[in-house]
């Protein structure tokens, strides 16, 4: 009898260990042509620390029983404030020398979503996207109207100088001097994003970016486009993308990954790999992060690197920059 009890307890312990994580989070800070040779160990450590810090802001929310949506926002706010990444402070410049910020967020439990394009004064565009989702009857606001809504909502406003950094200015000048294409400058996309699943099994996704260096004519990429750069659906997954936005829009990347998981039963990794291969076949480059309600997470990219990190309730803690990290 005692032996049976002991065996039962042992079995329970084993199955508890094998259980899916109760929560998880994955973040990215952009994909691109980064390679080990062109980054000093100090730079690599600096990016690793920034990614870990943003991820851990989300971990704190999730471990305390908070929502996937709050975790995604907490992680992205830190990346937006960090000038190393192309979102919020440190956003790339348009051809005309301004910063136009795009962001989106989606709640997988309700499929509510909010997006903004070409916002110019909101310190944290991801908060503006969330306000569109929660406090407006709309999904997508743009330009001066998005700025006006932000002021009305009482979100923190900054002078556009807040976003500008010398390195991004140098990249714009290089693009103009060498007459480079949008996808040629430094080829580090640098957009930021997060996906998470919380203890209730709800997923959420968010993405924030300055877009592409030298963008003009009001160009908008995939990041604020629901279904392209961001998507979340409790029946499937949460996705945030980074890369050559035009291709990600055409492939409907984020929705396509969720659709494959929902209707074909693919794993997060298989669906992400397949859709990134489709982007590649069209001629595009970039990557995605995915989180599924079962707690699994996946990274997929067809560039030499993608700034990334993840964590879950089973103790997983990872950061990476290059393929193979
Ligand atoms: N996907 C973004 C865009 O096309 C760029 C990036 O990922 O950095 O606007």
What descriptive keywords fit this protein?
325 residues, alpha+beta, 8-stranded mixed beta sheet, 9 helices, 12 strands, 38% helix, 23% strand, binds aspartic acid
Question: Which small molecules are bound?
Answer: aspartic acid
Cα separation of the termini: 49 Å
**What is the H/E string?**
HEHHEEHEHHEEEEHHHEEEE
Uncertain residue ranges? 1-17
CATH fold annotation: Glutamine Phosphoribosylpyrophosphate, subunit 1, domain 1
Compute the gyration radius: what is it? 20 Å
* Domain module count: 1
Which whole number gives the mean pLDDT? 92
Under CATH, the homologous superfamily reads: (Glycosyl)asparaginase
Shape call: globular
Oligomer: single chain
Estimated share of beta-strand residues: 15-25%
Order the strands across the largest sheet as they lie in space.
4-3-2-6-5-1-11-12
Largest sheet, strands/sense/barrel: 8 strands, mixed
Structural class: alpha+beta
